């Protein structure tokens, strides 16, 4: 029997190719924001090993098209290899190349943001050319454009859909959703105008999204009516603002929404509540979710609050025995970490706790004191994510160093700095801390034996034994 060298097997070559770098992050000139840049030099070198390496890796090299990151690639090259595109991303404002130049017919995931009528027609043709296999679609309409029902006629495999900036007068949204009931599992709606809130009757029959598991809505249909059509909803992200037509600034609207979730969504496990409604309104919604049997109560809760009232805290603690993820986002300047930490210490199954304070006057040292004083009753905590306190206070107490230099010789008290996972400094000079502050921070969480990720003011640290684990910020 003739043996074949492993590096001549396409399956092995494909595995190797998945480890080769294709992308880098750079700062955009002017804005300073991070952006992807297509840098396939190493990958391209491997293509030259042999014909089988070339033929196997070419589809991997060109499987992902990102317009901004690949703007330096000549159009003829993109056209030639577009048959391999599986993911297609063209963001608004990052330049446009004629989609009709591409010959992609195997796209599985598409993000399209046409800005003109001509680009809109091109995006429609691309959707039609790939309708048989398209599973994920994000479609941002040009200003003032009306969503057409017929554009979705062939998308029978679509599982994830995000729509934003479309006019949907006359019930178009419901008719589109009716066409997708056999496949749609995730729906995100943002800034739609003319939404019909009559309950979704299409030709006399109510639309039921039987497969929908996740729903995220901002400026969409009345959520109390919409979730009635989602019997298997597991995750819901709701933006509830006082300026919306169906919100009358009283407790009845929250009770109506809570009743819809309780009655029609028995499988709800994760709830995110954003928006400007007051804390007592959010407390009503959170509290009434507890009417779901305790064996199937909320596992994840994220809430945007202006202040943490006792009523809101008590509502969250109704779910204390089941919560595994808890996040709070606040813009108040008077956040009290000691008060907030009363919540997670009473949640024995909590693995992830996050506090993101957009503005705060609380001292970083008082936050450390609250961490040390917290009587943790749970050893389940794995991720502690704190964006609170004054970052400049990390300079106090002793000599300061750039964080990457502070950890250059190894971990501090068993913790590594994770520079690629955090929010980079606005300054090219990096982030400065004192070693004394770092040590006090890590000492404050010593009692959490299972803690593997600690994030403070955009800087991510990983315990030695978990350093290679992936990390995804909860609220971003």
From TrEMBL:
<protein>
    <recommendedName>
        <fullName>F-box domain-containing protein</fullName>
    </recommendedName>
</protein>
<dbReference type="InterPro" id="IPR032675">
    <property type="entry name" value="LRR_dom_sf"/>
</dbReference>
């Amino acid at each position: 029997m003739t043996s074949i060298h492993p590096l001549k097997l396409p399956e092995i070559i494909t595995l190797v190719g998945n480890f080769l770098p294709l992308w880098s992050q750079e700062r955009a000139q002017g804005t300073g924001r991070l952006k992807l840049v297509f840098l396939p030099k190493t990958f391209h070198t491997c293509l030259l090993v042999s014909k089988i390496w070339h033929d196997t890796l070419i589809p991997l090299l060109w499987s992902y098209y990102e317009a901004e990151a690949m703007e330096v690639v000549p159009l003829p090259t993109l056209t030639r290899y577009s048959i391999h595109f599986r993911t297609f991303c063209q963001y608004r404002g990052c330049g446009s190349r004629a989609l009709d130049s591409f010959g992609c017919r195997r796209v599985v995931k598409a993000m399209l943001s046409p800005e003109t009528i001509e680009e809109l027609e091109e995006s429609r043709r691309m959707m039609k050319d790939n309708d048989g296999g398209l599973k994920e679609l994000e479609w941002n309409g040009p200003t003032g454009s009306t969503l057409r029902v017929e554009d979705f006629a062939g998308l029978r495999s679509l599982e994830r859909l995000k729509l934003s900036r479309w006019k949907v007068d006359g019930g178009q949204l419901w008719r589109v959703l009716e066409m997708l009931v056999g496949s749609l599992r995730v729906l995100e709606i943002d800034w739609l105008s003319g939404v019909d809130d009559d309950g979704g009757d299409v030709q006399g029959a109510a639309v039921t999204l039987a497969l929908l598991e996740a729903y995220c809505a901002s400026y969409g249909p009345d959520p109390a009516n919409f979730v009635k059509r989602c019997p298997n909803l597991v995750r819901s992200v709701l933006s509830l603002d006082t300026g919306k037509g169906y919100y009358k600034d009283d407790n009845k609207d929250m009770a109506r929404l809570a009743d819809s979730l309780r009655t029609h969504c028995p499988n709800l496990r994760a709830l995110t509540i954003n928006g400007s409604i007051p804390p007592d309104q959010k407390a009503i919604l959170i509290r009434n979710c507890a009417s779901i049997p305790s064996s199937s109560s909320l596992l994840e809760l994220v809430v945007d609050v202006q202040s943490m009232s006792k009523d809101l805290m008590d509502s969250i603690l109704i779910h204390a025995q089941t919560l595994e993820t808890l996040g709070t986002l606040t813009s108040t300047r008077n956040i009290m970490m000691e008060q907030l930490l009363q919540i997670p210490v009473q949640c024995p199954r909590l693995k992830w706790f996050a506090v993101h304070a957009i503005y705060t006057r609380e001292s970083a040292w008082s936050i450390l004191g609250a961490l040390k004083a917290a009587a943790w009753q749970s050893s389940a905590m794995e991720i502690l994510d704190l964006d609170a306190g004054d970052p400049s206070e990390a300079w106090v107490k002793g000599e300061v160093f750039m964080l990457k230099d502070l950890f250059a010789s190894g971990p501090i008290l068993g913790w590594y700095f994770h520079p690629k996972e955090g929010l980079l400094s606005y300054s090219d000079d990096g982030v400065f801390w004192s070693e004394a502050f770092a040590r006090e921070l890590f000492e404050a969480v010593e009692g959490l034996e299972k803690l593997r990720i600690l994030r403070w003011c955009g800087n991510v640290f990983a315990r030695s034994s978990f350093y290679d684990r992936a990390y995804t910020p909860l609220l971003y």
